[in-house]
Each structure stands twice: as structure tokens, then as C-alpha cells.
Amino acid sequence: MRYSVVAVGKAKPPYADDLAHYAKLLSRYARVDVTEVTDDEALVRRIPDRHYVCVLDSRGRSYTSEALAEWLEERRQAGRDVCFVIGGAFGVPAAASADDRLSFGPMTLPHMLARVVLLEQLYRAHKILANEPYHH
User: Are 93 and 37 in contact (CB under 8 A)?
Assistant: First the structure.
């Protein structure tokens, strides 16, 4: 499976270290391409064609880790690569059309932290799908 993450802002420590850690762990299960852009206009332009687009939004749907794993498996079974879109300080612009919206809860997270949580949850979902233990 292939994931694209299109996000506003360049990752810096301490987030960059965590992102690299989870990207490395996740690489055993899926390909992850991260595209960092400078502004909202570039964000919309860099969303790949033919991907299932999922915007991270505090008003989106929340999942348990197990339910997220099932959701990802449904995308895989449908043969759809998934693009996760993470906006900057003001969220994702309305011009970014989405197939779905994902929330990590009603609280607003800093966008860099949301990137770390996303990669960790993708890794956890693949561990669940592989029936492997996860203790990180």
C-alpha cells in the first residue's frame, strides 16, 4: 500500500526525529511519501491524482486504532492509495476536496504533532492488520 502525506511546513526537531522513526517502522508495511509545502495554495496543488484523499480535521470522524486499521484495509482492498492532507495553523483550505475527514479528537493539535500521530497510527494499524504485538 502507498500513502502520501501532504503537509504545510517543514518538520524540525523534535518532530522530525519522531517522523523519521515512524516512517522507518512503517516502511516494512507500506510506502510513505511525505510532501512538505510552504502554503495552502501549494498544499492543494500537491494532492496526487487518483488517491483517496483524507483531510485531517478536528471535525472529522474519529476511529479506534482497530477501526482505523479496518478503514485502511478497505482502501487497500479497493486498490486505492491514500493521501492524508494536513494544513497549517489555519487548517486545510476549502479548495481541498476530500473523500473523507479524519479526526484525532475534538481538540486541535499542532500540525507537526498531528503528523507524528498520523504516522504512529498508520504503523499501529499495520501491526494490528498483521496480528503482531505493538508495545511502543
Answer: no
Pairing of β 100-102 and β 2-8: unpaired
Residue with cell 494544513: 87
Q: Does some domain include residue 111?
A: yes
Q: Are strands 31-37 and 2-8 parallel, antiparallel or unpaired?
A: parallel
Confirm whether 136 is domain-assigned. no
23: nearest Cα among 106, 129, 99, 126: 126
User: What confidence tens digit (pLDDT) does each residue in 63-108 have?
Assistant: 999 999 999 999 999 999 999 999 987 788 877 789 999 999 988 8
Model-level pTM?
A: 0.93
| 98 falls within a domain | yes
Give domain status of residue 54, yes or no.
yes
